[in-house]
Recover the amino acids of this structure.
């Protein structure tokens, strides 16, 4: 069964450094998302992406964040200058066409630790 | 804006018994989807069950069923014949109609199944 993959599984970085989190969505899917979950808290929406542009973003997704689909398969989230409060689990999700087009499939997540 | 509330931070149930997790939501939309996701200690987000708001019939998936009360904006999850592997965080989530819309999650309920 097709699945969403994410790399790395765990990233440790120093405050102020740039990080890029990578996701490979399911191949025929059209909509892509990033969510984050701070430890012990609920999952929060960051951004959605469709047709090579951002379709919606939350107030969390400020100028320090950017997304890109550079090659038609990868979907990346970049944080330019990480802060301690960026430490969280980051989930990528994708959503396809067809009768199950409303279901979002989640990747296993990347745990980001900012020290 | 939509909100999703899970009023039970923690619950426990004996193996083989039945447990019900509560979820309420607030929206002005008429067409939408509701989901229950399971998050085991691995922190992977696993879709358990979904409900389309336009369907009156409650969704069922094996031991999992929902009680969807649209007028009351309530969407509870019933787990029958609880198994040790059901131990996890459970998140209720809302999505406006159509693909490309974000998921809004509740705060989660931690379920412990006791042997």
């Amino acid at each position: 069964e097709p699945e969403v993959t994410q790399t790395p599984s765990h990233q440790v970085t120093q405050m102020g450094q740039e990080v890029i989190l990578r996701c490979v969505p399911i191949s025929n899917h059209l909509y892509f998302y990033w969510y984050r979950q701070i430890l012990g808290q609920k999952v929060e929406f960051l951004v959605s992406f469709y047709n090579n542009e951002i379709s919606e973003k939350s107030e969390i997704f400020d100028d320090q964040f950017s997304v890109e689909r550079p090659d038609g398969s990868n979907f990346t989230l970049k944080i330019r200058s990480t802060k301690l409060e960026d430490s969280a689990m980051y989930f990528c999700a994708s959503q396809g066409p067809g009768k199950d087009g409303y279901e979002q499939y989640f990747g296993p997540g990347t745990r980001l630790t900012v020290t | 804006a939509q909100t999703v509330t899970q009023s039970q931070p923690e619950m426990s149930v004996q193996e083989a018994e039945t447990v019900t997790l509560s979820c309420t939501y607030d929206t002005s939309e008429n067409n939408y989807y509701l989901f229950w996701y399971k998050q085991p200690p691995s922190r992977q987000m696993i879709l358990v069950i979904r409900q389309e708001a336009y369907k009156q019939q409650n969704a069922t998936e094996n031991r999992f069923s929902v009680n969807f009360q649209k007028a009351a904006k309530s969407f509870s999850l019933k787990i029958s014949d609880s198994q040790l592997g059901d131990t996890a965080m459970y998140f209720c989530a809302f999505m406006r109609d159509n693909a490309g819309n974000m998921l809004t999650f509740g705060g989660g309920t931690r379920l412990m199944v006791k042997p």
Chain B touches chain A at residues 33, 37, 42-47, 50, 52, 91, 93, 95, 97-108 (CB under 8 Å). The CA atoms of residues 34 and 94 of chain B lie 5 Å apart.
